[in-house]
Specification:
The chain is mainly α. The protein has helices spanning 2-30, 60-64, 69-75, 116-119, 127-135, 137-140, 154-166, 179-192.
Length: 204
């Protein structure tokens, strides 16, 4: 009886060792490492670690050339919960925005308590600065108490700036960039991209 038990136990142990060894060997054989470069491209899927591909904003002068202050007035409705814009209007959650374009950043406004982050920016509310501020206040002045997330569309930002400018500022708009200057960034981007039909034989 003891011999039979020992035999069964021995074969069971042997089978376990064989199974364990097979698992280890198969793991090594089929182990995969991430590829340095994908073997083939999948349309619509970005390569891991690639840049988001977000296009650079056009210059503010370019979008201001087609800005619509009336459209900006409608967009300003989103701001009206926190800002007044009437001449002599009171500060609310945010400062009164009358005659803001061209004004020094974070000064005046009837003693409004600006954040230290915005006070530290210095300079004036130029068209360029307003363009960047409206895109992302937290990026423009990290630590700002402004809770507005930002507005990504360049034309929407330009429309609001045009409306703000018409409310007591009336700063002359910058001249639109020359056609060649506006096209330069796109031309540079195209120059770095491979031509799609470079290897295609000429059609007869």
């Amino acid at each position: 009886m003891d011999d039979r038990f020992n035999t069964i136990a021995g074969w069971t142990l042997f089978a376990g060792i064989v199974a364990l060894g097979s698992a280890i060997v198969s793991t090594k054989i089929f182990e995969q490492e991430p590829l340095e470069k994908p073997g083939y491209a999948i349309q619509g899927v970005e390569a891991e670690g690639a840049a988001g591909g977000e296009a650079a904003d056009p210059p503010v002068a370019a979008v201001l050339a087609t800005a619509d202050a009336a459209a900006g007035a409608k967009l300003f409705g989103k701001c009206a919960a926190c800002h007044s814009i009437a001449q002599g209007g009171a500060n609310m959650i945010g400062p009164n925005l009358y005659a803001t374009v061209g004004e020094a950043i974070a000064t005046g406004k009837g003693g409004y308590a600006f954040s230290d982050a915005l006070k530290g920016k210095g300079g004036n509310w130029t068209f360029d600065n307003l363009y960047l501020w409206l895109k992302s206040p937290r990026t423009f002045a990290p630590g700002t108490k402004m809770t507005f997330a930002g507005m990504s569309a360049p034309q929407d930002r330009a429309n609001i700036i045009a409306y703000l400018n018409a409310q007591g500022s009336n700063v002359p708009l910058p001249p639109p960039p020359a056609a060649g200057a506006a096209a330069a960034p796109a031309a540079a981007a195209n120059a770095t991209a491979p031509a799609a039909n470079a290897a295609e034989p000429a059609k007869k």
